Amino acid sequence: MRVTVSVRAALAAVLAAGALSACGADEDRLQYATDYSHHEPLGVVGFPTSDSLQVTQKLVWRLADGRAGALESLAADPDDKGAKAEIEKTAQNWIQAYRKGAGGKVTAEFYDEGSVRQLVVVYFHDTAQIKAFLVLLTGRTGEVGWRVAMREPDPKEVSATPDWVPGTPGGLGSKTPL
Description:
Blueprint: H1 2-37, E1 42-46, H2 50-65, H3 68-72, H4 81-102, E2 106-111, E3 117-124, E4 129-138, E5 145-148, H5 155-158
Parallel strand pairs: 1-2
Antiparallel strand pairs: 2-3, 3-4, 4-5
């Protein structure tokens, strides 16, 4: 009888822990669906992974919404104390530079294969702006998930586009010429 009660208690604890972790996943899915319904769909060129696409989509949404804190949470090194100030300034710079364009039609081109990192070039059609950045798996073994390299505290860096990037999506067949 005691064994049965102990087994039931253990099973209940496991189920409760699973339900709590599932709530977090459900909240993430609900937030993603809400964001998706409130923003212009992202055009895609190239071959993103589902995760590199999702972090890029979130980045565009955070830019459009002007949510610096939420944008900072997508950064590759959010807990690195030395990087924190650079990430905060980069988020502010990116929002200032790209918020208007992110609210309209946007196409993201994903370069090369994206098993652990992927170069993304985002074209903001309404403002004719182009932004290149790197998305990558973070953590020792990728356990932190996909994040955005955000280390551009100088406003001049923010608007710099590599000279090899074509003026329209797909110009290089989503392959870097390097």
